[in-house]
């Protein structure tokens, strides 16, 4: 009668020992799972930050390139077509055309290079601010980061100031300043091509003057043939001479 209780006690002790052994294992698994989830969460957050940063830099580059195309592409094409027309008309030599094309290409390259350098600098500063704390940087690295931040701030301020200059604002006219003054300042070329604009105006004015002189001569000849519909021989004396003079000189 005493044997069965002993077996039950042994069984209970075995169960309790196995359960006590399993509890630390479960705790370790739970701790490892929590640590893994926290690491994965940090990794996902970091990847998300990188994707957002890359998307922002891409939008910035696209915006700068679009602005550059709007400013330079159409005027450059128009200037090229005008230059070809002047070469065909004999108003400009091929050597002068080549020099103008070199200048236009150089200006376009400098604008694009400026936009690319600004985007690269912005990306470097954002990377260093995202991946490194100031406490982790040495004094030299911290000085370089501050220098880059200063250069970036100055470049962005200069860019914003240039954009604000093109915005027309209303103000109360005074004796010293009128709305026409602001308008005259904005007549300058946005791409800095004042020399090319002045050169183009001189040649266009010359072409218009030549065309106007030729057109005036054609009108005078037309007036001679059409102003007097009847034979001048039928009118005699002083009246005929007056009609000839009026037809040649015009109204």
Automatic annotation (TrEMBL):
Region Disordered, annotated ranges: 1-47, 165-199
Keywords associated with the record: Coiled coil
Native source species: Paragonimus westermani
Organism phylogeny: Eukaryota, Metazoa, Spiralia, Lophotrochozoa, Platyhelminthes
Biased segments, Basic and acidic residues type: 174-199
Composition skew (Basic residues), residue ranges: 1-14
Name of the protein: Uncharacterized protein
Chain segments annotated as coiled-coil in the UniProt record: 80-107
Superkingdom to which the source organism belongs: Eukaryota
